[in-house]
Design brief:
This protein has about 400 residues and is an all-alpha fold. The chain folds into two domains: about 180 residues, MFS general substrate transporter like domains (Growth Hormone, Chain: A), CATH 1.20.1250; about 180 residues, MFS general substrate transporter like domains (Growth Hormone, Chain: A, Up-down Bundle). It contains 17 helices and no strands. The longest helix is centred in the last third of the chain and has 52 residues. It is globular, with a radius of gyration of 20 Å.
Length: about 400
């Protein structure tokens, strides 16, 4: 079997995971009102609950799914998850109550945790020096899904609130069939290990992986970086409205340009950066670039300049794959799924924490009692988090690099 086809399957799986979130966003307010009979305010509350539940499930089940793939293999875990995902979207398409939607988001959060297995598969087939660049492909696929999802969801939403769910179900089912025929198993008896609940729960997995030399600090840095980087989806729509008066169309265009730029950086440019700088200095470059980008966005007052800056800020999106590569080379071959599950959990917690922090800071600096009117204040917080990341990075044992 050519190596290219399995990689294509893995990347499509990640694209579908990313699309699945954005695909349904445009219709969620109308769908929630449709099934609850409430107004837009109550729909927003339920929307927040559904998003939080989704992230909590990713936190809880990221290590579980990763450990299952270390025991039973990447192939069965990925194929079963895609099958369940397809059924889940079908149930949500037919849901007539908010409770079915809630159950759907619970199941969706669990199946979306398979990104950890996709990363583990990529680690399995990569040479040590290839891992960071190949993890960049995963990031690029996520960026593509981030762009395509809302655009396709908005178009399909014109045909009814259920249409995006049917489309997501078809995509997941089609990819499962594709994977059934072309996906090989990469977990051999040499690296297969027993499934243990004490390591499959997120706290046990964090304890084991974090105890490996140098890895604990890199996980902490990964978490801080995710909190900082999540400032974009957390406050971008509010920030651009307050600072530049942008309408939803312009907000969507700017986010799409960012997603496309991130896909280009992580899918291609990162290989050039890694070849010239190595993983350690790639991380430092990314932190320095993001520091400057966050500072620029915090202070910019011209909408045209902000639109130009938006895709350029993605040039710093090399930190995550470089960190993943460093950690993957440190962790034993029989714990690659567990490591990726831990990172999935850390990212899920950042998805919960970051919006709470960033929106509160935005409100504090734009409300009537604000000491100074500064819509870009959350970007200054993200800038300071880059400094914290650098402090953690320099404090870690040099031997890990």
């Amino acid at each position: 079997m050519p190596r290219t086809l399995p990689i294509i399957f893995i990347l499509i799986t990640v694209v579908i995971d990313a699309m699945g979130i954005g695909l349904i966003l445009p219709v969620m307010p109308d769908l929630i009102r449709e099934v609850t009979g409430g107004d837009l305010a109550s729909a927003a509350i339920w929307g927040g609950i559904l998003s939080t539940v989704f992230a909590v499930m990713q936190f809880l089940f990221g290590p579980v799914v990763g450990n299952l793939s270390d025991r039973f293999g990447r192939r069965p875990v990925l194929l079963v998850a895609l099958g369940v995902m397809a059924l889940d979207y079908l149930v949500m398409a037919l849901a007539g109550t908010i409770w079915l939607l809630l159950i759907g988001r619970i199941v969706g959060g669990i199946t979306a945790a398979t990104q950890s297995t996709a990363n583990a598969f990529m680690a399995d087939i990569s040479k040590p020096e290839e891992k960071a660049a190949n993890f960049g492909l995963i990031g690029a696929a996520f960026g593509i899904g981030f762009v395509i999802g809302p655009l396709l969801g908005g178009l399909l939403g014109e045909y009814g609130t259920r249409a995006p769910f049917y489309a997501a179900a078809v995509l997941a089912a089609a990819n499962m069939v594709f994977g059934y025929f072309i996906l090989p198993e990469t977990v051999t008896d040499r690296i297969r290990r027993p499934f243990e609940w004490r390591r499959a729960n997120p706290f046990g997995a964090f304890a084991y992986i974090g105890a490996l030399p140098g890895v604990g600090r890199l996980i902490a840095m990964f978490f801080l970086y995710q909190v900082a980087f999540f400032v974009y989806p957390a406050i971008w729509a509010y920030f651009t409205r307050a600072r530049f008066g942008w309408e939803p169309g312009m907000v969507g265009l700017s986010l799409a340009s960012f997603g496309i730029a991130m896909a280009i950086v992580q899918g291609g440019l990162i290989r050039i950066v890694l070849a010239r700088l190595g993983e350690r200095f790639t991380v430092l470059y990314g932190l320095a670039f993001n520091f400057c980008a966050f500072l620029a966005l915090a202070l910019v007052t011209n909408g045209t300049l902000a639109l130009i800056l938006t895709p350029l800020t993605a040039l710093g999106a090399v930190v995550t794959p470089a960190l993943q590569g460093m950690m993957s080379r440190t962790v034993p071959d029989d714990a690659q799924g567990e490591l990726q599950g831990v990172l999935t959990s850390a990212a899920a917690v950042s998805m919960i924490v970051s919006p709470l922090i960033m929106t509160q800071i935005f409100a504090a600096f734009t409300g009537g009692l604000a000491p100074v009117y500064l819509p870009g204040a959350p970007f200054l917080v993200s800038m300071l988090l880059m400094v914290a990341c650098a402090a953690v990075f320099f404090a870690r044992p040099r031997a890990v690099a």
